[in-house]
Write a structure and sequence with these properties.
264 residues; alpha+beta; Phosphorylase Kinase, domain 1; Aminoglycoside 3'-phosphotransferase, Chain: A, domain 2; 2 domains; 5-stranded antiparallel β-sheet; 3-stranded antiparallel β-sheet; transferase activity; Kinase-like_dom_sf; CcrZ_PhaseVar_Mediator; Aminoglycoside_PTrfase
C-alpha cells in the first residue's frame, strides 16, 4: 500500500475476515482501502449505496486497489433494520437496472436455484457434511423443490443481509457495505434471511408492500428455499474458518426451524 500512497501515510488493517481491507490516515485525510474489491463499486458509489469512491489503481502484480472516503458511522441495531429507510434502499438496489446491467457486462451470469444447490452440495461433500442428519434432510428438501421454485426475475443480491453491513454514516446517510458475496439471483435470496431475522412474521405483508411485492404463496415458498440454502452456506462458511461455536449455532437454527420444510 505504501507504494501507492507514499510513506507519509499511516496504514493499518481494517479488520474483517478477508485481510484485504485497510485504513490509511494522513493528517485530516482518512481512506478505506480494499484489495480486489468488486469492480462495480463505482456504480454503487455513484448511486449512494456505498461511501464515495475516491480512486482505483492497478498494481504491477495485477491486484486492484480501491480507495473510498472513510465514513465515520455505526452499524444499524436490530430494531433499526425494520425502518422504512432500510426497505427503501434494498428495494432501490434490487430494482436498479443500471446495477444489474453493469454486473452482467462484467460477465456475471444469473444463478438458478439448481446451480446454487450444486455449489452447496460440492462444498458439503468437501467437508463431509452430507453425513450430518440436519444437513442431509435440508439438502433433500432443496433438491426436491429447486426447479419448482425457480423464478425468472433475477436481480443483484447482496447475499449478506445482516445488520453489521448496514452503516449509518455521520452524514445521516444509510449505506450497505461489503459486496464481496454479491450474485445475480432471485431477490428472495436477500429477502428470506432479512425477513426471518429482523421482521416479525405478522409484519411481513406490510414490509413487502413497502418493498414493492405482494406476499404470495409463491414468494413464501421461494424465501423458504433460500432460507434453508443460506443457512447451510453460513454453516460451511464458519467451518472454513474453524469457528465451531458459530457452526453449531447455525446447525441448531436449522434444526429448530423444521416447519420451513414445506411447500405453500
Amino acid at each position: 500500500m505504501e507504494q501507492i500512497l507514499g510513506s507519509d501515510w499511516l496504514i493499518s488493517p481494517a479488520g474483517g475476515t478477508s485481510g484485504e481491507a485497510f485504513i490509511a490516515e494522513k493528517e485530516n485525510n482518512k481512506l478505506f482501502l480494499k484489495r480486489n474489491s468488486n469492480p462495480f463499486i463505482a456504480i454503487l458509489s455513484a448511486e449512494g449505496i456505498v461511501p464515495k469512491l475516491m480512486w482505483t489503481k492497478r498494481l504491477s502484480n495485477g491486484d486492484v486497489i480501491t480507495a473510498q472516503k472513510w465514513m465515520e458511522g455505526r452499524e444499524l441495531t436490530r430494531p433499526e433494520m425494520q425502518n422504512e429507510e432500510v426497505v427503501g434502499l434494498l428495494s432501490k438496489i434490487h430494482h436498479s437496472s443500471e446495477i444489474l446491467d453493469l454486473f452482467m457486462r462484467m460477465g456475471k451470469k444469473p444463478v438458478s436455484p439448481s446451480a446454487y444447490l450444486i455449489q452447496l452440495l460440492n462444498k458439503c461433500k468437501k467437508h463431509d457434511m452430507l453425513e450430518n442428519e440436519s444437513i442431509s434432510q435440508a439438502t433433500r428438501y432443496l433438491s426436491r423443490y429447486a426447479q419448482e421454485i425457480d423464478n425468472e426475475k433475477k436481480v443483484v443480491c447482496h447475499s449478506d443481509m445482516f445488520h453489521e453491513n448496514w452503516l449509518k454514516g455521520e452524514d445521516d446517510h444509510l449505506y450497505l457495505i461489503d459486496w464481496d458475496q454479491a450474485i445475480i439471483a432471485d431477490p428472495a435470496l436477500d429477502l428470506s434471511m432479512f425477513l426471518w431475522v429482523y421482521v416479525p412474521r405478522d409484519q411481513w405483508s406490510e414490509w413487502l408492500k413497502l418493498y414493492g411485492l405482494e406476499e404470495t404463496n409463491d414468494l413464501l415458498a421461494r424465501m423458504n428455499w433460500y432460507l434453508v440454502a443460506q443457512t447451510i452456506s453460513y454453516i460451511l462458511w464458519h467451518i472454513d474458518r474453524k469457528e465451531t461455536e458459530k457452526v453449531n449455532q447455525w446447525i441448531q437454527f436449522l434444526q429448530e426451524q423444521q416447519f420451513i420444510y414445506r411447500k405453500y
